[in-house]
Design goal:
The chain has a 5-stranded parallel sheet with strand order 4-3-2-1-5, with helices on both faces. The radius of gyration is 13 Å and the shape is globular. It has one domain: DsrEFH-like (Hypothetical Protein Ychn, Chain: A, 3-Layer(aba) Sandwich). It starts with a strand and ends with a strand. By secondary structure, the protein is of the alpha/beta class. It is 32% helix and 21% strand.
Length: 117
Amino acid sequence: MSLPKTLVLIETDPRTSPRPAEGIRIAAGIGAWKKTDVTLLLRGPAGYCLQEYPDELVDEDNFVRYLPIVAESPRPIYVEDSFTDKEALAGSVFSYETISPMRTAELIRDHDYLIHL
């Protein structure tokens, strides 16, 4: 039997809001249960979650502590191409896959649960 799939979709700016850090913490936490497959999707300014220096983000400790756990997942971290500041991710230690809004819609449709922050 396959596990249900959960999509964590973050759209808020981690430089000004604590919500992205909380989303990363949630994704790492529920993924550790091994009762659901977790996928992380960053949309718009949420792409800054992957920038090289987490000390510039609100609640940086959550990024330092939990983002590496999420990145260990067999699924890629997705960044929608609505995030246009690709230069900000040039020094990122995290690999990610850029997707289109159409692929975002497919991901939302294909997952059993959606956590939207």
